[in-house]
Amino acid sequence: MPIPSVFYTAQQVKQGEVLAAKSTGLEMFSLMERAGQAAFTIAFAQYPGTHHWLVCCGGGNNGGDGYIVACLAKSMGVHVTVWQHGDPEKLKGDALSAYYHWLDHGGEVYPFDDVIPDDVDLIIDGLLGTGLSGTVRERIFDLIKLINASEVPVVAIDVPSGLCANTGAVLGIAVKANHTISFIGLKQGLVTGQARNYVGQLHFAGLGVEESFEQQNTPTLRSISPKSIKSILAQREACAHKGLYGKALLIGGNEGMGGAMILAAQACARVGCGLTASLLHSSNVSSILVSVPEVMSAGWDDEQRIQQRIEWSNVVAIGPGLGRDSTSERLFCQIQDLSVNKVVDADALYFLAKNPNFDANRIITPHPAEAARLLGVEIAIIEADRFKAIKELQKKFGGVVVLKGAGTLVSDGNEIYVCLAGNPGMASGGMGDVLTGVITSLLAQGLSCFESAKLGVIIHSKAADLNAKEKGERGMLASDLLSHLRSLVN
Questions:
Q1: 150 has binding-site annotation
Q2: 45, 480, 483, 486: most buried, per Cβ within 10 A?
Q3: What CATH class has 6-221?
Q4: What residues does each domain of the chain span?
Q5: Binding residue per annotation — 408?
Q6: 433 among the known binding-site residues?
Q7: Is 59 labelled as part of a ligand binding site?
């Protein structure tokens, strides 16, 4: 079934599945059977020509699901080998029942081996479920390492073993799955940060209790819908004129960094801002005028001109190619005191870290390294729990925070949204400058800070996906997104 647009913590799902099953009159073992059936269906559909499955079972209900998968695969004529971590007779509750169910079907269980049989052509990961809190222990660590080195495709049940279902962090080591099927309520840790390297294609099965579960639980995370582009950006009136669609001022482009401002300004204009202006180092004025003559560009060495442009604009963005010299810092301080809506990125975030303040009329767009500087911590702390990081950033700096990276997060302090679009081709210089231009344009056109940030992120990522579909991910340039931006907003 389609991936839901809402996500929950592992604790919500663990507690909620019991209540949901009870409210629908379903026994918990029946729920386990449905989970195993769903996992088998995905595995068999994705790998129909496989003949020997290795099912790796752990000590909890995740392992119980694995036994159900093993039974179903065996009934379809697949040769199945089951490896169990620990003594299977010490399993409890429904997992123990699933183990006996496997034995009743003539199945056998073996301890982990140091070598995966040569003819195994699919691995089912049922080792560690959502309850993992500490780092992966040594014996399972070795098995996960063996699985990842095998190059055999993997289908993970509920969550790839070793991945934190709440944060997306790898707890020492994690199974690198080709497909992951999650049940009842999607876990928030499956869609951001390191999880994007381990989950593979994400699937969902509600097991017939998802409606009851959703009624009883409030999501902790929502995905940004690509459909929002069309629903939020209304058709323009026939008598529209440029004055109706905002006046954006972008400040940056220090000496030797004019390209960043060219990218940001082009993106701002292409997404539909009525009037776009830029202030940058005088050495870059000619190049931006040649590249984007539609953008009113001038040097930032005239204080009167700066003040006039600030008063003219209804949104100001600062950061792309700004640099970190005394002029850059002076401009940042001048902008920081304004009550107008602002977008702050790149080098401007360096100065914000030095001079922190709370501003409800601001969007900040840090990548993990910039977020770490803003919070005074190591990058690893940010990536260990991106949800915690974005909450702390918003609490400290106010407004709206866009925490960039795989599975970009957007928060206004009340809600958190995740972007499921995007691809590795975006790991190239200038992508952040384009995003700044996109968000600035939407903000200038009258959208709120939160809507501008969410919509800007999805437009930016979808543009990259369209370009990757046409020409591939490797070698993608930030400027390659520009034509797609225009298509998407139309």
A1: no
A2: 480
A3: alpha beta
A4: 6-221, 228-488
A5: yes
A6: yes
A7: no
pLDDT of residue 130: 84
pLDDT band at 1 (very low <50, low <70, confident <90, very high): low
pTM of the model: 0.95
Task: Confirm if 343 and 439 have CB atoms less than 8 A apart.
Answer: yes
**142 has binding-site annotation:** no
In Å, the largest CA–CA distance within the chain is 86
CB 66 within 8 A of CB 94: no
Element of type H or E holding 155: strand 154-157
Q: Rounded to 5, what percent of the chain is helix, strand, coil?
A: 45, 15, 35
Closest by alpha carbon to 37, among 98, 79, 128, 96? 98
**Strands, sheet with 154-157, edge to edge from the N-terminal-most edge strand:** 109-110, 79-84, 52-57, 122-126, 154-157, 179-183, 201-205
Q: Is the pLDDT of residue 199 over 90?
A: yes
Between CA 381 and CA 366 the distance in angstroms is 15
pLDDT at 264 over 90: yes
Q: Is 66 exposed, middle or buried (0-12, 13-18, 19+ CB in 10 A)?
A: buried
For domain 228-488, give the fold.
UDP-N-acetylmuramoyl-L-alanine:D-glutamate ligase (3.40.1190)
Interatomic CA distance for residues 202 and 195, integer angstroms: 11
In angstroms, the Cα distances linking 16 to 63, 72, 190, 216 are: 20, 27, 18, 7
Q: Is 399 annotated as a binding residue?
A: no
